[in-house]
Structures are given as C-alpha cells and as structure tokens.
Amino acid sequence: xxxxxxxxxxxxxxxxxxxxxxxxxxxxxxxxxxxxxxxxxxxxxxxxxxxxxxxxxxxxxxxxxxxxxxxxxxxxxxxxxxxxxxxxxxxxxxxxxxxxxxxxxxxxxxxxxxxxxxxxxxxxxxxxxxxxxxxxxxxxxxxxxxxxxxxxxxxxxxxxxxxxxxxxxxxxxxxxxxxxxxxxxxxxxxxxxxxxxxxxxxxxxxxxxxxxxxxxxxxxxxxxxxxxxxxxxxxxxxxxxxxxxxxxxxxxxxxxxxxxxxxxxxxxxxxxxxxxxxxxxxxxxxxxxxxxxxxxxxxxxxxxxxxxxxxxxxxxxxxxxxxxxxxxxxxxxxxxxxxxxxxxxxxxxxxxxxxxxxxxxxxxxxxxxxxxxxxxxxxxxxxxxxxxxxxxxxxxxxxxxxxxxxxxxxxxxxxxxxxxxxxxxxxxxxxxxxxxxxxxxxxxxxxxxxxxxxxxxxxxxxxxxxxxxxxxxxxxxxxxxxxxxxxxx
Length: 489
Description:
Elements: H1 7-26, E1 32-34, E2 55-57, E3 78-80, E4 101-103, E5 124-126, E6 147-149, E7 170-172, H2 183-189, H3 196-205, E8 214-220, H4 223-244, E9 251-254, E10 258-264, H5 268-280, H6 299-322, H7 327-341, H8 360-393, H9 399-413, H10 428-439, H11 446-451, H12 455-475, H13 482-485
Parallel strand pairs: 1-2, 2-3, 3-4, 4-5, 5-6, 6-7
Antiparallel strand pairs: 8-10, 9-10
C-alpha cells in the first residue's frame, strides 16, 4: 500500500519536528533525534544549528533531496533516511565524511556516485530496495566498511574491487539479476549473510569472465566438513602468495554435495606444485610446520605468514576432530583427495569422504559444531535486530536506557564473528541483551514500560532473543526462557 499524505499531515508533522528540535536543543544530554514518520517534505532550518547531534533518524518521510545546510552537522555519525523519495544519491552526503552508518534503503536511487569513497569512515552502508544498476569500482577504497546491504536492486555484476574490503563482515545481495558472478555462485558463496572470506578472495583471485579454458574439479564432502574444507582451500591462494609472491586464481563454489573448484589453465602448474604439500599439512602438527619461503620477506612478515598458516591448519584439524573423524580414515583419503585436487583432468570422478559416528561423543561434537554454525549465521542477525530495535524504540527511551543500548551496540560491533573459540569472545553484551529481554516479563521494570509503547519494538526484541538462544550454547551462556522470546513466526 502506497503512502498517502495531505497538506494538513505535512504541516502537523513539520510542527512536531520543530518541537522535537527545540526539545533537543534545550537538553545538554541528548545526542539522538528522531524525526521519522512525520510526513516531512522538507527539514526545519533549526535542525542545522545543532552542533552536538550524533544520530539523526529521518526514515519514512517524503524527502526528495537534502539541503546543503545538513553538512553543518559535523558531529553526525548515524544518518537514517530510508523509505523516502530520493531518486538520486544526495550529493551533499559526500561532504559528511565522519558518518559511520548511512541508511538509504527503500528509495528510488539508480546510481551510486564514483566519489562514494569520500565517506571513508563508513562502517555500515544500507542501499537495499533501490534501483541501483552498478556499483562503482571506488567501493574498494571504503576499507572501513563492515556491513553492506545491496539486496533488491538491479545489479547484474559486481566489481572485483569489492574484494579489497578486508573488514567487511556482512553483505546482502539477494534479489538482484546477477550475470557476473552468476546468481548460483552468489548463493553458493553467500549462504544467508555469511561467507565473506570466500567472497572477498573470489573477487581478488577470480580470472576474467571471458576465460573459457578453466579446469574444474569436484569434491564430494559430508555436510559437516564442507565449510571447513572451503575455508582451507580458499586460504591456499594466500599460502601460495606468501610462499612465492605469485598470485593464483581460483573459484570455489559450494553446492549440495560438496565443492567445485575452477582454476584457469595458466595457473594449473602452481596448483600442482604447491597443493600436495598444503594438503599434507593436515596430517602434521601445526607447530612443526615451517615452510620454505621463495621470496624475500623480513622476519616479522615470515612469522606472521607462518602463524596464519598454522592457524588455518589447526582450524581444519579441529573441525575434523569435532566431527570425530578417526585419524586413520583421514589418512586413507588424504592421498586420494590430493590426487583429485591436482586437477590433471577436467572432470574426474568424485571421491566421497566418509565419517564415522559410533559414540555418544559424536552427538556432542555435532551439537558443538552446530552451535558454532548458529553463531556464524545468527550473530549478524542479532546485530541487525539490535539496530532495528534501537531505531524503533529510541524515542521512548530514558537516558540510562539509551546509554545501555549504545554500549551493547558498540561491544557487538567490536566482536569478530569469525573467532572460532567462545573463550575469545566478550560475553558482556550478550548478558546485557539477555537481561533486557527478561525484564519485559516484569511489568514494573523500566524496560517493560518502555517497550509496551511499541509493538514493533517488542517484535524486534523477541527476534534478538531467538538469535541469542541459538548462539548461547556455543558461548556457554544460559538460554532465555521461551516465554520471553515468543513463538517464531
């Protein structure tokens, strides 16, 4: 259903906006201002006199452009202008180079300016549900980006420069008519919002799209080992570069049965030369691995390269151990796997690596592994639900509640969801989320009173609770009672 407005609605919303701005100016503590859902067609000029505003919410209005004066808000860090009527990217935003979060979703924007990289501090850029047809190559210079939302646009291809976003944790691409990479490839390397490691290296290492003489091989793997082998084989390209200084190209795609690996003919020799040794590492103690470097590196560079290699080997070995694959079974198949991966023919017969499951320990291992998978999938969901919750409920919060949400948000952003050990993750923000959710059952608590003012706020909070419960076992944290998080729709 399209939004409807009347001159009276716009006038009333404008008056409310002016009142909120004056209230903000009168307070020395406020840092966030919510002018969403007021049917605004323009912004009150008083807004641009505020020097200390950090968060500005202007979603669900009727704005078609932004005045130049908004660039005067030098302290602004978060700007949400989703669900308005922008047909072009507001050029004035390029002057606001201190922004860390920018949400332009649900507009009619068809182009991203080449100068987007001027927003060098951005950590989150949301452009979902626009009409964007291309991403400029300069996106690769936005090295601080952690979250990039591009779903539901008109993108047919992605620039390889997106592979230089080394800090990117989440990217959403669904709902685009991709030609390069193909839609099936995007889905294969991006289950849900994860798979960033594979995505980045795919774009850095993938050969040009018009190469026809690639050699492809397939490995059939049990589902429990597919992700681990994917990561290990993806790291192989980095290993070769660290060792020899040569950049090789490959594409690794997951499907229902295992992995497909595509390598250009020009790079086959390097694969044959280094892959057998690389696969042999799985059978060795990680601390004994000491590769012979063929290029000049200083001592610290070598130490870092060896540490990275040993970490990848340990991760692979740990995943195999978690699945309780007996050592002798692994050794029986490693030689077959190496032979298969040598890529001497285009389509060899696949080898199926079997696992054993004969003890109750196996059930515990599977549960542990699944909990880790839940963390990888649901941690970004938890972060996004918190952002939605903040936006929806912010105007109802007292200062203490705002501070608590800001602390949780900052602590969650600092967590790397690729950490493989629960001991390495700070538990404080998860405990804070759990405490807030459980307080909704106490009608006398401040949180219960605040959340009761927003139905959507309660929905988002319960969604956070369900995500929390999925990852809590791996973090060794208590779950939230089901009565507090509602039934999943």
